[in-house]
């Protein structure tokens, strides 16, 4: 298969122009305080709106003219061509020879017939699966679908790992206020037995529905947990006198309490799940891009089809904005280029995501997979070595918790850490402490932190407060610590869809500049292969143990000496 090589961004005149610009900024001295003073219109020039999200880039280490240089580089690496290729189903996932069509998951029904890929009407097929999911969700929510004893489902337990877990659990936590059918969700991912033990604790088996999410229905962690969940269910139902433990009653219970998100209907049936209750997705949907596919079935059940549609509309809003807005005004493109700016020119290694909304407490973990599994690579999409640094270490915690943990390093440490601050104007839980609006107290921190990081505090200002001279250096803040403020109206299903699509496309922009296939993940494979070889050595196979390296042998011997059965 012939693969068109990526443009080497570092060899373009546009990269050289950006390097020259960087050198000039360093030479004249970067000072956000001065830049704000010199340009009354700076904030206006560096503020953008996409969907109902507002973006303030003014506290970044750029000038307004930097944006055109970003746009020029995006054009030089043919971002427009690659975006069109992705949206239309060209196989841009080279190593797996697959299209990359997560954008098709949220296209409106009016787009049926417009996106035929490899002979498949992608939008038509997506809508057909969604219709089946919605019909199922309505049955569960209304009580028409019951457990084996006729009781309404009260808890959905999603069993998956990676993209089959991180996305759904993040969105579930983000949208908890919208759970309106008396149904809650739990998520099991880790093969560690403690995960399943804790997540099933306190559950009523008669009102619990398990959703097993595995496209191939062969994922080791997921299927191990699924079998354990099946055993738990049957044992608990029998102990409660709900079933007699006969093969017939067991089979009936499994069909009422288990459904699947999978395309391997044969293995689904072998497990005991009715294949009619299996919802599929396609090989052009990568795991970390799949929360808006059937992988989100638990969300459709908890929040309802109408809310799930709003969620999809949020994605599509950003998809359309990204594809149709000129680069120099396209905040999605500019944020991707901004990350390249920091990674390749400032040599920054990490990137903090700091949501000032407790409901988004799982968002940084979700982004870790989205960004680092996509762009944590050292070869380009044609197999040649990369020509610059790639990938950022994404991490974060909700504010204000992070302020009392790691903000010290961001403010006064020796590393430059760009940070995205995310907040919403409205809260579903307005509270007052006396006369103080607590949400406004919270947002006061959101505003204050970016101000402190940008402008800092000089020694003169510290001295003016009467600080003893020997303590002055410890209380100085250098400022010029870059942040992007993302401000939404409310954390709705639409807004969550927007946020996810925003970071999906930011990741794509970076990958395009670096020449990466952002849609494979071969780096996760070797450890899985070795685990299969090593597991027999742990307790019984001395021959397998002897085949291991000295360190692994030593660790296994420690295990054998101390395991209590």
TrEMBL record:
Species this chain originates from: Bifidobacterium moukalabense DSM 27321
Keywords: Cytoplasm, Gluconeogenesis, Glycolysis, Isomerase
Pathway(s) of this molecule: Carbohydrate degradation; glycolysis; D-glyceraldehyde 3-phosphate and glycerone phosphate from D-glucose: step 2/4; Carbohydrate biosynthesis; gluconeogenesis
Predominant localisation class: cytoplasm
KW Cytoplasm (keyword) present: yes
PROSITE patterns (UniProt xref): P_GLUCOSE_ISOMERASE_1 (PS00765), P_GLUCOSE_ISOMERASE_2 (PS00174), P_GLUCOSE_ISOMERASE_3 (PS51463)
Protein name (record): Glucose-6-phosphate isomerase
CC terms in the record's Gene Ontology section: cytosol
Pfam families (alphabetical): PGI (PF00342)
Enzyme Commission number(s): 5.3.1.9
GO terms for MF: carbohydrate derivative binding; glucose-6-phosphate isomerase activity; monosaccharide binding
Organism superkingdom: Bacteria
Family matches, as InterPro entries: G6P_Isomerase, G6P_Isomerase_C, Phosphoglucose_isomerase_CS, SIS_dom_sf, SIS_PGI_1, SIS_PGI_2
Record: active site: 373, 404, 528
NCBIfam families tied to this protein: PRK00179.1
Catalytic activity entry: alpha-D-glucose 6-phosphate = beta-D-fructose 6-phosphate
Family note: Belongs to the GPI family.
HAMAP family the UniProt entry points to: G6P_isomerase (MF_00473)
Function: Catalyzes the reversible isomerization of glucose-6-phosphate to fructose-6-phosphate.
Compartments, record wording: Cytoplasm
Single Gene Ontology BP annotation: glycolytic process
């Amino acid at each position: 298969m012939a693969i068109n090589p990526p443009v080497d961004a570092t060899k373009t005149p546009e990269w050289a122009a950006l390097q020259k610009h960087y050198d000039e900024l360093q030479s004249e001295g970067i000072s956000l305080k001065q830049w704000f003073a010199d340009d009354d219109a700076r904030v206006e020039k560096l503020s953008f709106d996409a969907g109902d999200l507002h973006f303030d880039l003014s506290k970044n280490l750029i000038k307004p003219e930097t944006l055109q240089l970003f746009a020029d580089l995006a054009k030089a690496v043919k971002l427009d061509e690659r975006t069109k290729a992705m949206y239309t189903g060209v196989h841009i996932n080279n190593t797996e020879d697959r299209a990359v069509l997560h954008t098709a998951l949220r296209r409106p029904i009016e787009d049926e017939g417009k996106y035929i890929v490899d002979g498949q009407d992608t939008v038509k097929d997506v809508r057909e699966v969604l219709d089946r999911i919605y019909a199922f969700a309505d049955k569960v929510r209304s009580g028409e679908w019951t457990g084996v004893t006729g009781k309404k489902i009260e808890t959905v337990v999603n069993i998956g790992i990676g993209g089959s877990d991180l996305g759904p659990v993040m969105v579930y936590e983000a949208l908890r206020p919208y759970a309106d059918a008396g149904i809650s969700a739990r998520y099991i991912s880790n093969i560690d037995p403690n995960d399943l033990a804790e997540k099933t604790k306190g559950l009523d088996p008669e009102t619990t529905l398990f959703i097993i999410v595995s496209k191939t229905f062969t994922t080791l962690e997921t299927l191990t947990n699924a079998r354990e969940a099946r055993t738990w269910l049957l044992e608990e139902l029998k102990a409660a006198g709900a079933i007699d433990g006969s093969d017939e009653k067991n089979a009936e219970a499994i069909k009422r309490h288990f459904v699947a998100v999978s395309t391997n209907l044969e293995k689904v049936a072998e497990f005991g799940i009715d294949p009619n209750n299996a919802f599929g997705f396609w090989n052009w949907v990568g795991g970390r891009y799949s929360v808006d596919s059937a992988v989100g079935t638990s969300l459709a059940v908890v929040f309802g089809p109408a809310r799930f549609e709003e969620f999809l509309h949020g994605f599509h809003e950003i998809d359309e904005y990204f594809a149709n807005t000129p680069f120099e005004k396209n905040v999605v493109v500019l944020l991707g280029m901004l990350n390249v700016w920091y990674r390749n020119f400032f040599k920054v290694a990490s990137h903090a995501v700091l949501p000032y909304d407790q409901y988004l407490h799982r968002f940084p973990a979700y982004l870790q997979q989205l960004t680092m599994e996509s762009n944590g690579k050292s070869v380009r999409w044609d197999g040649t070595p990369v020509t610059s640094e790639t990938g950022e270490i994404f991490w974060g915690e909700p504010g204000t918790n992070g302020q009392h943990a790691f903000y010290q390093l961001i403010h006064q440490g020796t590393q430059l850490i760009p940070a995205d601050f995310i907040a919403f104007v409205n809260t579903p839980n307005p509270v007052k402490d006396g006369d103080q609006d607590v949400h406004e107290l919270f947002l006061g921190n959101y505003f204050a932190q970016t101000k402190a990081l940008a402008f800092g505090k000089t020694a003169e200002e510290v001295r003016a407060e009467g600080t003893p001279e020997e303590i002055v250096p410890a209380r100085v803040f250098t400022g010029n610590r870059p942040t992007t403020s993302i401000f939404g109206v409310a954390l709705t299903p639409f807004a969550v869809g927007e946020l996810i699509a925003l970071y999906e496309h930011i990741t794509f922009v970076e990958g395009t500049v670096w020449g990466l296939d952002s849609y494979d993940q071969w780096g996760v494979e070797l450890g899985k292969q070795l685990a299969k070889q090593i597991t027999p050595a742990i307790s019984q196979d001395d021959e397998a143990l002897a085949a291991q390296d000295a360190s692994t042998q030593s660790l296994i011997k420690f295990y054998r000496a101390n395991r209590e059965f």
